[in-house]
């Protein structure tokens, strides 16, 4: 679905789900060059407070981009800004639910402010706020 600016309303929301795989984490590391062993090396991760490999925070944050670009408002919107708080680790095998909620509309500039929330089993793992522009 795709929304025009005129179709957006305060409180309008959409969600997507994605289960994080080991391949996702390794592919993200290969694409970005972020080879931090806490993501890729089980032996190393076992020595950390996480005890096992975790997904990159920015991989999880990428699900926000997917929700905005494909669901709300959808294709054609332009991402202008994103704040993020990484609140808890995301482990391989976890299903991340990403929800985006329209919180502010600027008709003159055709911009929307969107609350962004990623959860795993109801627990917030990444939160923030995005500003997007619609054509």
Automatic annotation (TrEMBL):
Which Pfam families does the UniProt record give?
MaoC_dehydratas (PF01575)
Please list every transmembrane segment annotated in the UniProt record, as residue ranges. Answer: none
What InterPro entries does the record tag this protein with? Fatty_acid_synthase, HotDog_dom_sf, MaoC-like_dom, UPF0336/Enoyl-CoA_hydratase
Q: State the CDD domains in the record.
A: R_hydratase (cd03449)
Taxonomic superkingdom: Bacteria
Domain (MaoC-like) spans 14-117
Protein name stated in the entry: MaoC family dehydratase
